[in-house]
Every structure is written in structure tokens, then in C-alpha cells.
Automatic annotation (TrEMBL):
The record marks 84 as: Lowers pKa of active site Tyr. GO terms for molecular function: oxidoreductase activity. This is Aldo/keto reductase. The active site is at 55 (proton donor).
Length: 281
């Protein structure tokens, strides 16, 4: 099913509903700007907010969520909040402790989705056991991974009792991750794209501009629509209200098969972030 509305959801393999579209807050510092961005997103209909311990901004994200709930007369249950355990905390007890720290900073009783941020060899299995405990204890609605390649998931599943529900990875028209998407689809694992706009590096691409002009849309809107039509959850980052609103205006047009193929053809396996098989942090 292709999302038709900002609040449309995909159903994860455990039955939990996750919005197709959300707000990312990578590298946005704590403070009033972030609080306002979260509030603006929720005011304009966003229901998914994605943060992480390493972003060091969970307190402001939580403040924005709480103020938005009061101002928009919605409930916590209407929102889908994601955070991630950082590499330094990957271990059974340390992951459980990291979860509590994230909850306290956010001021929440539970998360909708908790992810292992990076596949640190020798550590991610213990962290996954902790996520399974949190899930079985009803402390988190869904659990998953981030930046995991096929072989990481296969290795994890040798000992895991619960399959990841989500894999959040760098994904954009120059890094289409076709093999990984195919594998995750076969396994019932929802793919979610971080850096869907390639940190702004695609916003003057001539082919994307041609497609955008044809649809009278921005290049960003075309890329985000491409995500959705491929069945990919997407979480573009912005702190500006007009951009938050513009990014979400992707439900009133459809890319043709030719458009989709042309965008697919831009793949260069080019990353703006670290390689999950070769990172050092």
C-alpha cells in the first residue's frame, strides 16, 4: 500500500503501526529551535519523531512532544517516538540502563521503537538480548536495528528469539540499497531511510529537477515520494516550519514507473555517512 496521507501507517511484523513519514532530528542541538521544530511538525500532522542518544537532544525532543500534546489536544498514544542505543552502551546491562536514560530525558513512560544504532561486532548481540527483554516486558512497542547490512542481520538471527521489526539505514537515490531492501522485505523487516535527501546534496540534481518540474514539486518532495512508493519509511530532517510543511506535501501526486526507474538509475552506491562494515566510533 502506498501512503495517501501524512498519518498513514505501515504495520510492522508484530502488528504495531508505524507512520510512513516522520521528522528526523540528527545534529539538531538542544534548545528552543528544536523544541519549536518538534512542535511545528506535530501541529502540521506529523506523528513520528526520530532521535537517538548520541544526538544529545532527547531532552528538547521530549519537551517539544509534551508541549505539542497539550497544545494540539492529542495523546501520547497518537505519537510514534524512536530512539537508539549508542555504541558505547552496547551490552546487556548497559543497554537496559541506556534505555532508562533515554526515557528519562524524553520524559516518557515508553518508546514506540528502540534501535541498535550501529552493528558493533562482538557487542550487538548482547544489546539485542536487552532489547528483547525490554520488548517482552512491555517497556517498548517495537525493536529494531540501524545501519545493519544483510550479514549483520543474519548473524544477529543466529541467536535472537525476536526478529528486528525495523532496519533504519542510509538510503537515497545515490544509495538505493536494493539487495538490502529485498532481503528485509523477504524477512518482514521494515526499511526506514535516514538522510533521504543525502544531506541536501541532491537538491540541484538535473534529472531530479526535470522530474520535479514536471510534477510542479520540489526535488525534496520528489525524493520523499520515491521513498514512499518503494515502501520505505522516511524521516527527513528540518528545523524550519515552512520546510517541515513542504517536506510533508507529498501525498497529492504520484511518480510514474518511468520516473521511478530514472531515479533508481541514479544509484552510485555512494554514502554520505560511514560504511557499516568499516566504521570507527
Amino acid at each position: 500500500m502506498i501512503a495517501k496521507h501524512l498519518q498513514d501507517t505501515t504495520t510492522l511484523h508484530n502488528g504495531i503501526k508505524m507512520p510512513w513519514f516522520g521528522l528526523g532530528v540528527f545534529k539538531v542541538e538542544e534548545g528552543a529551535e528544536l523544541v519549536l521544530a518538534v512542535k511545528s511538525a506535530i501541529k502540521h500532522g506529523y506523528r513520528s519523531i526520530d532521535t537517538a542518544a548520541i544526538y544529545d537532544n532527547e531532552t528538547s525532543v521530549g519537551q517539544g512532544i509534551h508541549e505539542a500534546i497539550l497544545e494540539n489536544q492529542i495523546s501520547r498514544e497518537d505519537l510514534f517516538v524512536t530512539s537508539k542505543v549508542w555504541n558505547a552502551d552496547l551490552g546487556y546491562e548497559s543497554t537496559l540502563a541506556a534505555y532508562e536514560t533515554s526515557l528519562n530525558k524524553l520524559g516518557l513512560d515508553y518508546l514506540d521503537l528502540y534501535l541498535i544504532h550501529w552493528p558493533v561486532e562482538g557487542k550487538f548481540k548482547d544489546a539485542w538480548r536487552a532489547l528483547e527483554t525490554l520488548y517482552k516486558d512491555g517497556r517498548v512497542k517495537a525493536i529494531g536495528v540501524s545501519n545493519f547490512q544483510v550479514h549483520h542481520i543474519e548473524e544477529l538471527m543466529k541467536e535472537a528469539t525476536i526478529k528486528p521489526m525495523v532496519n533504519q539505514v542510509e538510503l537515497h537515490p545515490q544509495l538505493t540499497q536494493k539487495e538490502l531492501i529485498r532481503f528485509c522485505k523477504e524477512q518482514g523487516i521494515q526499511i526506514e531511510a535516514w538522510s533521504p535527501l543525502m544531506q541536501g546534496q541532491l537538491l540541484d540534481h538535473p534529472i531530479l529537477k526535470e522530474i520535479a518540474d514536471k510534477h510542479e514539486k520540489s526535488i525534496a518532495q520528489v525524493i520523499l515520494r520515491w521513498d514512499l512508493q518503494h515502501g520505505i519509511v522516511t524521516i527527513p530532517k528540518s528545523t524550519k516550519e515552512h520546510r517541515i510543511l513542504e517536506n510533508s506535501a507529498v501525498f497529492d501526486f504520484e511518480l510514474s514507473k518511468e520516473d521511478m526507474a530514472r531515479i533508481d538509475g541514479l544509484n552510485q552506491n555512494h554514502r554520505v555517512g560511514p560504511d557499516p562494515d568499516n566504521f570507527d566510533f
